[in-house]
Amino acid sequence: MAVATTTTPILSPTTTLTRQTLHTSFNFFAKLHPTKPTSRHLRPITKLQVSSPTNPPTTAAAAAAASSSKPTEETIFFDGGAHYGDLLANLLLGFTLVWLPLTLAAVFRAFYLRYRFTNLRVTVISGLTGQDRSDFSYKVIKDVQVVPRFIGEWGDVIITLKDGTKVDLRSVPKFREIAKYCLSIADKSDVLTEKGPKGF
Fold first, then answer.
1. Which label site among 111, 167, 179, 187 has the fewest CB atoms less than 10 Å from its CB?
2. What is the dihedral of CA 134, 136, 142, 144, to 10 degrees?
3. CATH number for position 168
4. Do the beta carbons of residue 94 and residue 100 sit within 8 Å?
């Protein structure tokens, strides 16, 4: 008796089953964790046509244009707080009840007030965390006056702006040099006017 034998490929059903299982498991995980489409699939691709100028600028003209568009670098002339002598003198006189408010003002100036003079602007930084900041350019300065304090070790710099605003900077160290610097940058006369009584 003859037995009919059929040859069936052993690997093909398993391979098909494995591909179907992988495809099904991929779809299952894709539903659990959907991916966001990338931005390149959402918008059409556009091409930008850029042409170079027919007459390129000369090197001297290009250098002049680059120097005019580039701002000058900011250099700091003075950056600091009130003079330490102001704090020391007011602390010594603060033991009297009459002088106590002035002592508290001196302590506030010493710890929470900074002046910065650069070649481009004047900056006053104040407040507990330095969040109060005032900047103005030298172009808006109309006049600069100084008031010496103590024996001339420190003083007040009073800057009058063109709109009539007066900015009073108290207990500034090197106040005469700073005032002359402000006048020279603002293209004003270098003659300083000292006014007011000398005191603390």
1. 187
2. 60
3. 2.30.29.30
4. yes
Beta-ladder partners of 143: 160
Count of domains observed in the chain: 1
- Can you tell me whether residue 153 is helix, strand or coil? coil
Tell me the pairing of strands 154-161 and 121-126. unpaired
Q: Domain span at residue 128?
A: 75-194
Domain assignment present for 9: no
Strand segments, DSSP code E, in 100-191 are: 113-118, 121-126, 132-137, 141-149, 154-161, 166-173
141 in Cβ contact with 186 (< 8 Å): yes
Distance CA 115, CA 159 (A): 13
Residue 64, domain member (yes or no): no
Asked whether residue 53 is domain-assigned, the answer is no
In three-state secondary structure terms, 169 is: strand
Ordered per-residue pLDDT tens for the chain, 200 residues: 555 555 555 554 444 444 444 444 445 545 555 555 554 555 555 444 444 445 545 555 555 555 554 557 889 999 999 999 889 988 888 888 888 888 999 899 889 999 999 999 999 999 888 889 999 999 999 999 999 988 888 999 999 999 999 999 999 999 999 999 999 998 876 566 666 655 55
**Rounded distance, CA 185 to CA 118, Å?**
10
